[in-house]
Amino acid sequence: MGKIQKILVHEQVSQEIQNYIQEKELSEGDKLPSVEEMTQMFGVGRSSLREALRYLEAMDIIQVENGKGIFVRDVNTYRFMGKVKIEQERNFLLHTLEVRRALEGQIIRLASKRITDKQIAELEVCLEEYRKLKEAGKDTSKTDLAFHQSIIKAAGNPVLETVMDSFAGLYEKFFNDPLGNKQLFDETYPFHITMFDAIKAHDTENAMEEFYKMMDCIEAKIKSV
């Protein structure tokens, strides 16, 4: 179980203000709602809101003019920051993917040799749920994560499982709105089936081949954003 990362209120509020600027397509010089209005909009106290405003002002996204109001300072800066954020997340995911290839690759290798009939049945249920959600156009991220977590257990190595638990906070980034797109890795769905079929048949070679196809697909999607 990974540690829950604490998110400060002012960080959440600053993100909501940035979302507001983007959604309303505000330009440089456009006025934002007043402090009173934003406390109502976001359901937060004045102190948290003011802290968020100080942060955004320091980043040159807004400008607070006493007695006049709060204004968008430089929308180009805002857009640039968004691009930087995406680039940082892209690099983070690519670096984490390199670790996934090593750790999860060994997990697939072991699972193909050690998986039990009960674990096979559990994975079949998971894949069926995955199929139904995908066909209904619903979010499959939690089921996708559960599928991979079940394979980790099927590897039958408690030390490796502990390593993956410590890695969980980073690992789950692939399933939690990666690069702002919950459906970014939808194209990996067929590889879940072919990889599972190989694991079920205790065919290590094909299981590994399908796993690396999945990793290659994920890498290509990350780089395409």
UniProtKB/TrEMBL annotation:
Alphabetical list of PROSITE patterns matching this protein: HTH_GNTR
SUPFAM superfamilies referenced in this protein's UniProt entry, alphabetically: GntR ligand-binding domain-like (SSF48008), Winged helix' DNA-binding domain (SSF46785)
SMART domains: FCD, HTH_GNTR
PANTHER family noted in UniProt: TRANSCRIPTIONAL REGULATOR, GNTR FAMILY, UXU OPERON TRANSCRIPTIONAL REGULATOR
Name used for this protein in its record: FCD domain-containing protein
Highest taxon of source: Bacteria
One function term, GO molecular function aspect: DNA binding
Domain HTH gntR-type: 7-75
Keywords: DNA-binding, Transcription, Transcription regulation
